[in-house]
Design brief:
With 616 residues, this protein is α/β, with parallel strands linked by helices.
Amino acid sequence: MNLFLFPYDRIKKDSNIIFYGAGDVGSQFAEELQKTNYCNVVCYIDKNYEEKVDFPYKVLPPEALLEIDETSYDNIFICVNNDVLGEEIKAKLLSLKVKGNKIIFEKFKRILNNQKTEYETGNGIEPDVLRIALISTCGFGDLLMVIFFALHLRKLLYKCKIVIDIHTKQNYIHVIKTIPYIDNCYPFKVRGKYSNCSNIYNNYDIVLGFKILAGVLKVNLGKVHKFSSIFFNYLENLIKQNKFICSWQEGRFYLQAKNYAEFCGKNMLEQFNLQDILPYNRNSSTYFEFAEQDFKILQENKLEYKKYITICVTANIALRNCIKIWPLSYYRILIDLIKAKYPYITIVQIGDSGDSDMLENADVNLLSKTNLSEVCALLKNALVHIGIEGGLIHLIYFLNNTGVLLAGVTASNYYFYESNINLYSDFFAKECKRDCIFISDNDNPVCIKNMNHTPKCMEMLYPELVFEKVSEHIDNLPDYSYKTECVFEFNCENDLNSVLNTIIGQRNHLNICLVYHKYYNTVLSSLEKANCNLTIYGKNLLEIEQEFANSEYGFIYNIPAKDNTFDITLNFSMQDLKYPQFALNEALRVTKENGIVLIEHDKSLSVIKKEKQNAK
């Protein structure tokens, strides 16, 4: 059976529409419209109208169009999956005095073939373990959304015995292996449909596929229900919606899938949770981990103690037909402007030489000289990252840093993060009024105004405007300076408790951050008695769970909290680190102005007061 996603790209929300054709295509649209109320259905037209007694909307014969006031509808949409028949219907409508600009005929080039969910019963491979496979064959930005989904799935089921594995592209394996809430990561190359992957199906109780939206490929619902009623409801609902949102199967439904998510009020972070069944949304914590050894890339390029900006130039070589680009000359002008005002800032170019042109005026060229995990370390410690919408712009959000997004053709309400600096040109706002993402039948955006290489929306995003916003960001960046207030000596863990009681004293309602460490249990006894709001960060929620505290995934180099969140940050593992300055910077970032950071060194506890001043 062929299945069709509703043409959200062709029909405006809340418009008045007449649908011509009440067959397979029209019937599926009618079923979806009953659930979404996306547009107002004036009526359906079908030559076999007399047979449509049980159709959910009024069905009239073609001749009835002569009696319908043309002001009562915005468009007539032809719902047939046959080019010749569609053209015949269009000619008939014109003969019935329907204006040509009101007729929409969608040639269904992107037909979705139904692949039924494979059901399994019994106890599966391991009766007391729920094994889950997540398959993603898209780019790195989309994979990050799958990782975000995995994070909150793990948090939902953290008390259960579960295995969460990701199957994705080979070049992403290295960076995922460090993430504590992912058990295993395997290379995956799709050939045809996902149903050909019997080796994956045989090893899991649940197999989910992701490409813009989520789809259930295999499931053991009986076993899932024993573990979690919430996850059971999520999967059951997803199966019911599969025929409308399962763009993971053949992949050319990106635009409809994206628009469907937008219609549901969701952005990219929420695209796998359209019905709000799982307990997360766009404001939920994000967390991404990389290896400590990845900071070596900063050391090797003498960036360890420097202020630097990262820039990624993409789609200038390999994707010449792609319009999601900013002119190469603009990058060079922007770099010159930055260097003129901020001579102490180093410009670092990152990315892949296969789809990037080299910027000769960049200070450090790391094109194709880093892996993704090393890129994480670079992005985490940059003043800001500059680039178009893509994996690195999404990654910097997961690293709790800021990016400058050269938006152009990109959908703002779907791809943007409030913590980023999202830039449009005046041309886009005045002339285009909508994005160009996924309006073509291939992966590359096509300009909605038929402009070839470098459309006006990107060309008019002038480097001077971008520099103005970058400069504003740099001038207002907090410089996390600090001074050591005092040092307490301690010889045993009991002394540590005494020190903490002295520091916290009788102060109430403090927001305290605790990063898991070897003195964890000792410190807890002091914090439990204090009247404070405690958040504990670690790599195992079962290990750090406490009734009187919030537990979150996190590690010493990337604490998933906003700037200036905590009054006190407890970080006792500095002396065990190879790069303690980066851990201290992160602790200072999440600590409020005039707040304190506690660190251990050689059986002494340093109380560091954060003082904030503007970087000049």
